[in-house]
Amino acid sequence: MSENTKVPAKYKRVHDVAPSAQYAAFMKTGWTPSPLHGITAGPATSWCVARRSALSAAYPGIRLVLPAGNFKTRSNDADYRFRPHTAFAYYTGVQGVEATADAILVMEPNGSGHQPLLYIHPRSTRETDAFYRDARYGELWVGRRFTLDEAQARYEIETRELNSLSELFATKKETLTLRDEDAFVDENVSVHPREEEFMAFISAARLVKDEYEIAEMQRACDTTARGFADVVRALPAAVATRRGERVVEAAFFGRARIEGNDLGYETISAAGAHACVLHWIRNDGEVRPGELILVDAGVEMESYYTADVTRTLPINGKFTPAQRSLYMLVYEAQNAGIAALKPGADWGDFHRACQSVLAHGLADMGVMNMSAEESLSPEGGLHRRWTLHSAGHMLGMDVHDCGQARKDQYIEGKLEVGHVLTVEPGLYIQPDDELFAPEYRGIGIRIEDDLVITEDGCRNLSGALPRHPDEIEAWMASLMR
Ligand SMILES: [Mn+2]
């Protein structure tokens, strides 16, 4: 195999027949000089300087190793499409298809701060055997990568061959890393008692989004809105197809791949009672007129920022009275949640605002043998039979962003300007729930939007998509004409 790869030996590749000396020599000659790409700094490059300064200041004198991660095997010798670790992308500015497996950012202690060093597999030129022999990295197989100079111009970080990382590791220093992302790093960096704290730090570092990040999240939401329009246009075909939920899933995926990098997470395409299964990603059901379809989907842009939006739509374009009454309760709950978003509010405030509206609505329907207040008390909680999940989470490059942040920074913390989060209350009446009249059974509704906290409250980044039933019906009619 090639000199610059770490493909596990167990994946002996059928096409990798050792070349004859004559063939190997022949493959290195007769090529015109490779054109230089006119590489300029990437869109996130300048924003990463301040991010790395904050990281450096928090860990003086400690070598910090942030791996992009290795390929993940799907089966046998087939890998999943590569997507770098979020922390690596956040501190380097690496975007979309530029990302290559095994790359590593090292923050090397230097004077009072750190020098960033980027270690990559550089392109495999025609002088190497790898270009035609290495199916995982060779550019004849997978396309051209950056040279060291090109990567340096793109990210404005000194860039070195990954092969030389062992030289750096030979000089022993106190080192912190993200465990279980890169086999070489795990082998060569000893376990440090502060690893968990380090992970919490880099997770919490992304809580407040900068201007560039908020603009990217707006783009993700706008692209996602176009994906939902594609979903509505696909509904007649979904009804006409046996596994109609897949028609919906595929319509959205097309938009994600055409305009973005990928999906931010697996699409939930849940028609009828499937909407009552919270993570319904099998998406193999029928789509029937007269029922609702719950679609939870988000486009991840080249910058890796993702949207996370849910709409619950009447498949034939018109809500029934029972569907509309349940929908309006969720709609009012979401309005109350959004109204609770402002700097200084407790993280739990918007959740409690949503739950209060839902519990009162459920109590009014007579399905609980206690009042809304009793149900909302810690000893009660009966309404949760139908509300099931919390009302939102932080959003960013990861759909559940900042998940390793400490409690006092996140779930027991306060909202700040620049936080981006979802507000997504739901009501789920299981198909076999005898406490509801038959016309309500098997209805699942969630409405989810992405909001950024501003000085005077919040801004709905996904507000381009209608939420009120009247607006949804008019919007669907305009798309299904
Ligand atoms: Mn969500």
Automatic annotation (TrEMBL):
The keyword Mitochondrion does not apply. Belongs to the peptidase M24B family. SMART domains: AMP_N (SM01011). GO terms for biological process: proteolysis. GO terms for cellular component: cytosol. Its cofactor is Mn(2+). One of its GO terms (molecular function) is manganese ion binding. Pfam families: AMP_N, Peptidase_M24. Residues 43-186 form the Aminopeptidase P N-terminal domain. Keywords: Hydrolase, Manganese, Metal-binding. PANTHER family: XAA-PRO AMINOPEPTIDASE 3. The keyword Chloroplast does not apply. InterPro entries: Aminopep_P_N, Creatin/AminoP/Spt16_N, Creatinase/aminopeptidase-like, Pept_M24, X-Pro_dipept-like. This is Unannotated protein.
